[in-house]
Design goal:
With 156 residues, the chain is an all-alpha fold. The chain folds into two domains: 66 residues, Arc Repressor Mutant, subunit A, CATH 1.10.10; 64 residues. The chain contains seven helices and two strands; from the N terminus they run αααααβααβ. Strands 1-2 form a two-stranded parallel ribbon. The longest helix has 20 residues. It is rod-shaped.
């Protein structure tokens, strides 16, 4: 049997705290999975046995045990930041975009287009630059009632 570099040895207090997660109302599934992994690792189970018993990937068991070794219980339970691009518009900028989309379109136009909206919020100084696609995605995410009448914004 291979000796584990990152052994999980919980204190009585840590064990009680982890077990309490299962009794205290609803918790995110990932948090409960990590707690189970730590409790089983503390009992001396192998990563393979833990992964099978918990129903997770072997790498999840290994990674959780390793994070415990470096960061303790809180670090092992905490969600890691996920990669991805930062939001293009903050809440205030999104509100300005929506307000502009709800306003009267420019003279000679029946509807706002995505490009006209993008140009207008740049013109207003809300952002330095923005694509019509970002405008479209942002407005699509904010539509709360798909059954309502058109918002006056054209997709073209």
């Amino acid at each position: 049997m291979v000796q584990k570099i990152h052994r999980v040895q919980l204190t009585d207090e840590e064990r009680q705290r982890l077990r309490a997660l299962f009794r205290g109302g609803s918790q995110p599934v990932r948090l409960l999975t990590r707690a189970r992994i730590l409790l089983l690792a503390d009992e001396g189970h192998t990563d393979e046995a833990i992964a099978e018993r918990v129903g997770c990937n072997l790498s999840t068991a290994e990674r959780t045990r390793k994070r415990f070794g470096g960061l303790g219980v809180d670090g092992a339970l905490r969600e890691s930041p996920r990669p991805g691009a930062a939001k293009k518009l903050d809440d205030k900028q999104t509100a300005m975009l929506i307000a502009t989309a709800c306003s009267t379109p420019p003279q000679g136009r029946a509807h706002w287009t995505m490009q006209l909206l993008a140009d207008r919020i740049v013109e207003l100084g809300v952002v330095d630059r923005i694509s019509d696609e970002t405008v479209r995605r942002t407005l699509k995410k904010t539509r709360s009632s798909p059954g309502r009448k058109s918002s006056g914004v054209s997709q073209k």
